[in-house]
Write a structure and sequence with these properties.
By secondary structure, the chain is α+β, with helices and mostly antiparallel strands. It starts with a helix and ends in a 7-residue tail after the last strand.
Length: about 160
């Protein structure tokens, strides 16, 4: 009986240390979705800065940003003549890493991702085409503010 209790205690310590290591490898992302109004077309940017390592800090950054006072994730959105768009932001943590975003806005948005944020966890999957991505999202219940397709100039640099 003592051996079993000792084994269970050891297993618990191993699982707790694994959970702590996993949490340490997660990064907090500000996920920006730019939705071209009246279409299913979106663009997405994954902002990450080591200065923001808690979801509460990221949500505070959104609050500042909505008032025009970005503290960390400073960015400017440029309107394209003839189109209107909506911008939405969400904070999520995830282990995936992304290439830096292109501040100039000139890099081609050649990557297509499905973005899912569930319980503040970020999951991003690469797709060969926008239509393939839309099919994948529709099979999982359709587009929502927390599940959608988006084109990006960023790449996934690890899985």
């Amino acid at each position: 009986m003592l051996r079993l209790a000792s084994l269970l205690f050891s297993l618990t310590l191993v699982s707790l240390s694994w959970a702590a290591e996993t949490a340490d490898t997660d990064k907090v992302y500000l996920v920006a979705k730019f939705d071209v109004d009246g279409t299913t077309y979106n663009e997405v940017v994954f902002f990450q800065d080591d200065a923001i390592d808690e979801l509460a800090d990221c949500n505070r950054e959104i609050m500042y940003g909505r008032r025009g006072g970005w503290q960390v994730y400073t960015h400017i959105t440029k309107a394209v003549s003839g189109f209107t768009y909506s911008t939405s932001y969400a904070c999520a943590a995830g282990a995936q890493r992304f290439s830096d975003w292109d501040r100039s806005g000139r890099a081609p948005r050649s990557q297509v991702f499905s973005v899912t944020i569930k319980n503040e966890r970020l999951e991003v999957k690469s797709h060969a085409s926008y239509s393939q991505c839309m099919g994948w999202v529709r099979q999982r219940g359709g587009e929502t503010s927390k599940q959608y397709c988006g084109k990006s100039a960023q790449r996934i640099v690890n899985q």
